Amino acid sequence: MSTGLSLADHITLEMRTDIIGGRLLPGMALIESDLVTAYNASRNTIREALHRLGQEGLTRYVRNKGVVVRRLGVDEVRDLFQVRRTLELQAIATSKPLREYQSDRMLEAIEATELAREREDWRAVGTHSLCFHQHIVGLMRSPLFDEFFTNIVAQMRLVFSAAPDEEHFQAPWLERDRQIHDLLAEGEKVAAQEAMSLYLDDSEQLLLDMLSHPSRH
Known about the structure:
Blueprint: H1 7-20, H2 32-39, H3 43-55, E1 59-62, E2 66-69, H4 74-93, H5 100-118, H6 122-137, H7 143-161, H8 166-170, H9 173-185, H10 189-212
Antiparallel strand pairs: 1-2
């Protein structure tokens, strides 16, 4: 265990990671006794972790059901993309020439996305693509922004999980992630920003359309 983190911190991180990994899905009931076993922690620790996840917007209390993994609606999606534009476009705008280790991290995420697509694991495709965007925000080298964006990624994962056909949603983005990386690697910051801006516009529109007209997808 890393120092400075309580057990509740660790369980919160684990549960958030399970949301990002698509293992805890929107609408899923989080039953304390099951979580005690799954995460090998006391009820008090689980309760504290659930409280924190609620503060992060990842769980909510539903009457007669207890705590459930949150479903996000149109307004939340618009807000998430407002945050993503602010952080990801700013990260590119203020970035210095891409260092080898930064490029390597992005390429690893892209390669993991590609492998997941080959085995048609669409949930993993979405998770690895979000990891690529975490590395974009990481260009700012701000631990506070990194931590904040991890929560945004977890909420995005919940939106993806609501897609009736995740393959239809996830298929187009891999090449566009690669294009953004390549433009950054070539020092084409303005073009990378434009590509990212278009990417976020298109992604938001597709998700909003999906949430507004689920039967079409």
